[in-house]
Amino acid sequence: MSASAVSHDIRSIAALFDMRGDFVQASVFGSGHINDTYCAWFDQAGQRLRYVVQRINHNVFKQPVQLMENVRRVTQHALAALQAQGNPEAYRRTLTCIPAHDGKPYAIDAGGNVWRVYPFIERARGYDELETNEQAYQAARAFGAFQKLAATLGGQRLHETIPDFHNTPKRLEALEAAIAANTNGRAAELADEVAFARARAADCSRVFGLIAAGIIPERVTHNDTKLNNVLLDDVTAEGVCVIDLDTTMPGSALYDFGDMVRTAAPTTREDDPDPANIGIRLDRFEALVAGYLSTATFLNEAERANLAFSGKLLTLECGIRFLTDYLDGDVYFKINRPAHNLDRCRNQFAFVKAIEDNMKAMEEIVSRYQ
To answer: Is the pLDDT score of 338 beyond 80?
Structure first.
């Protein structure tokens, strides 16, 4: 897409919102693969300001209006809480929705696409690859702070933007259905992977059962805690703002922490084709624990007791999803090679085994920060 085409398109979209400024230019922004994201400059009384303009992918998020209702509730609540605390950077510590002319936190274009606009969080950035344990600490601390603010959100239950997203028992049921269907004739080659998943059926139900029993509360959670979803301050490296709130919905705090472990603590990338390269970085795990528990002071005893286990659960769930997609013919996750999803599955299952082998050490690390 040419720069002029982007500018013309975003100029028209921006006109749907109460920008209170003159459009200058726009360009494609970020490394995301789901929504269409642009950085747009506006002149506001002689001051140049940046905004993030996004089209929500309604093929992934089937109810984008409900999604934006969640985002507005959570961000307005966070802003009010930060202001009540006297935080001098309240508008930098949470995303805020620029309203459309009808006051809604989104606008719908002539083609039926749902758009939103946020002020650009300046002097901070996300990192696709973690470079230090301090970055892991700061990102985990920011996610804990996000959950703490959201824990006091009142009113009706948030919408489920992706129903059963972390319902691990249903993920296992989907795997069994894919094995039975065997639509691509791949089941015969996967006996070891299938046996690995089936042997951990009780693990799949553990957190789900604790929530159902009322032992672990349902909370407002982010549900996509890749550490590049936290912006770190350019100068202090402090975690400033949690972004990408599309999957913010009811869940368990353990889902968020577990996914941090899954994405930040392995010794190699998640699609490394050699499972022998997979291990767990206990130093990185400790940085996550220290950062998260420094702000997630609202957790109950059962949640704290399952923090180490949550990394295993979320990794197992993701491995099951990769295996299911491989059986189904690679219809959900994008692949770059024929066995890409199978490599991912084996990688995740190897990380599950590494966590199992180090569970005692991980639980001891958690106990030091209680």
So the answer is: yes
- Distance separating alpha carbons of residues 362 and 288, to the nearest angstrom: 11
38-90 pLDDT, tens digit each: 999 999 999 999 999 999 999 889 999 999 999 999 999 999 999 999 999 99
CB 275 within 8 A of CB 347: yes
Helix (H, G, I), strand (E, B) or coil at 89: coil
Task: Single out the residue in 95, 122, 149 at which a domain terminates.
Answer: 122
Per-residue tokens: 204: 């799949």
Residues 279/267, Cβ–Cβ less than 8 Å: yes
SS3 category, 211: helix
Q: Residue written as tokens 């509730």?
A: 73
The pTM score is 0.93
Taking phi over 0 as left and psi of -120 to 50 as alpha, with beta for the rest, 99 belongs to: beta
What is the torsion angle, in degrees rounded to the nearest 10, for the CA atoms of residue 308, residue 313, residue 318 and residue 322?
A: 130
Using alpha carbons, select from 204, 202, 161 the residue that is nearest to residue 324: 204
pLDDT value, residue 2: 37
- Which of 88, 122, 156 is where one domain is finished? 122
Same domain, 204 and 290: yes
Beta carbons of 257 and 216 less than 8 angstroms apart = no
CB 346 within 8 A of CB 318: no
Distance CA 69, CA 103 (A): 12
- How many domains, the chain? 2
Which positions ≥6 away from 62 have C-beta within 8 Å? none
Cα separation, 296 vs 151, in Å, equals 10
In terms of DSSP bridges, do strands 239-242 and 230-233 run parallel, antiparallel, or are they unpaired? antiparallel
Q: Is residue 128 part of a domain?
A: no
Helix, strand, coil share (%) of the chain residues, nearest 5: 50, 15, 35
